[in-house]
Queue: 3 jobs
Job 1
Amino acid sequence: MRSRTAAASAAAALTLLLAGCGADSPYEAGYAHGQERRGTLGGDLFGQIFHCATWAEEQYEEKADRNAFKRGCQHGINDLPSRP
């Protein structure tokens, strides 16, 4: 029960964060989330796929939105800053 409450709180916090940063589409929301998670999931491909899919399932009901969020999330994790 405790983990459900924590998950619900985390989902609510993410929703507020994404609303505040102006994410206009599920892809952009996923990309922003992926950028936040890049440090912890950078080298673990399975972890990236599982994490992004799990968050997409929690955030969106429509399949197209879930798929866009997952793509954005994975791109956000893997998009490294360019070197000067």
Job 2
Amino acid sequence: MMASSLARRALQSTYTCRLGTNTPRHIHTSFSTQESWFGKLFRGSNATESPETSKLSEQEQEKSKLQTPTQGTELKYTTSEFVAEPAQPAGVESTTASSATLQARKKIKRTRLTPARKQRRFDEHISFMEPRLGRNPSIHRPLIRKTTWIRVLGHCQTEEQLKKVMEMIPLWRDMGHDFDTTFSHAFIRRCLYLKKPGFALELFGNFGKYNVPLTQTGARELLNTIYYTQPIDSVIVLTSLFNVYKLQPVAEDLSCCAMVIAACLKSQNKDAQVIADALLPHLKTLVKRQGEAPLPKGDEVGQNLPLVWGIRAVGRIDELLPTKGSDNEGGMRRWLHSWRVKSGHVPTVAEATV
């Protein structure tokens, strides 16, 4: 009885054993067989068994001959089952699966969606979103996720599709939801990708209707696209939004200040010229504060885009300002050109004559 009790206690614990040449061949995953084997070990092989138990043990022993692991296999088992795993040296980790996964990933060829597939996915998103928008949506669940708006923007290929998304934005606001800066940046980039910056100006110019925030980063990116390609009116509209969205004033941001001055000088509009003359002293202060600034190259460009845009705009101002005139014109031109030479943006006179 004591031996049987010890056997049962041993069965209730989890441990590992290593099969050798002397291990009984009739050990397998059955709980009843474990108990039978331990019972024979402690009670002796001549212990009496009922005919049904004996018959069951013989069947399980025959079955175990097919299931018994081979030598050198480590067994981890509990009282209910054995889990056979190949034995590995201590401190050595299997890297076969991870290396195979990495190789498989390298073989995957990323392919862009065709225009037809983009159109199909755009239509699927619109069909899903439309009945779930508005004050009284016809379908309530599943809900529209914010990531769905990003996806539908990513599949916009035409002006009509972008208009469709803009029509749906107020319905999202009517439900009490708002948009975050991620959507704001995604919308700006989609407008620039489709060469429709006017849509972005319309969206951010009517916050009461669309309720989409404008950030300093988004405003710079949009201004960098339109200041030298769009009419001066578009630039003035955008700069007026800086105060509406509580952004850093144009006169305190080097890249924005330089881009607005370049746009005003290029337009040759009298009112725009007044704005340029008012901003030039602020630009000089910002450039002095910046100090010599070599043009970023390589991987540094993406990390310093505002500086790159500002340097490019200063170069255009250098070309547009007259060489003679008041301090706000001729004197400023000479000062800016000297700063560009010191920063390495343009070659010196000696370098240019070589």
Job 3
Amino acid sequence: MRSIWNGAISFGLVSIPIKLVNATESHSVSFRQIHTEDGGRIRYRKVCELEDREVSGAEIGKGYEDADGTIIPITDDDLSHLPIPTARTIEIVAFVPADRIDPLQMDAAYYLAASGAPAAKPYVLLREALKRSNKVAIAKYALRGRERLGMLRVVGDAIAMHGLLWPDEVRPPEGVAPDLDVTVRDKELDLADALMDTLGEVDLADLHDEYREALEEVIAAKASGEAPPQTPAPAAGGKVLDLMAALESSVRAARESRGEPPSDVDAEVRRLPRKTAAAQKKTPAAKKSATAKKPAAKSTAKKTAKPTTKKTTSRKRSA
């Protein structure tokens, strides 16, 4: 794999020469803009708006536009005086548990390859230290003209680095959640739990880009002079008028897609224990109910039955 950056990992007084390699690749289909009348490529030219003429790359520089539209020229000499100690160094600044990293901060992924035989020993030392500590390394580095934040972790026998957004670049989810006073009933939650159990787990390696595959078939057909294949239109997702009916239908459809025999959805729903607002308050423990009913038995149950008695609260659960 071709490296895109050469530098070193700074680990205290230890320096590890490394090469930065892209860990991902795009398989998306890209298009060119063309003139629809004759198929000619559409080209963009760099034109100076003041002189109304095309300029060469040697004549193009950088400029910052401020709030009133004034352009402030910035030269390479101006940028060369910036204090960037991480210009050719991935400087480790801390080691933290992996769950301290907000997934919203995750950006591009890279592999760090040891550069030369002398780098092998310190590279393996850092890798094994990360493994044994069950932590990730937080680092600062410079790439493509700006200083960045990164996270180093072990992937197989290699060290990978994920670019991280700076904390102030992650927007809070203000105004995203519904601002209505919505109440979800226990039975609706139980059906949602049943649907989640029915859908089960998935091997991510089995997932593929169906749109890209269909698009490639269209391109291949057009290239050979054939009519593009017709694909069935997706089922229209209507407005959900009855949430319970939609959940029950989803559970049945998921079971049928997995080849499971149809069954009564209500009989399959298991009430899962969950904390209620009353239980979270500091109040004396409620007495056990002597009339608690035992959940209905399941012929294909994957989990053991719950105890026949349950703690109750002062408020009755809605059906």
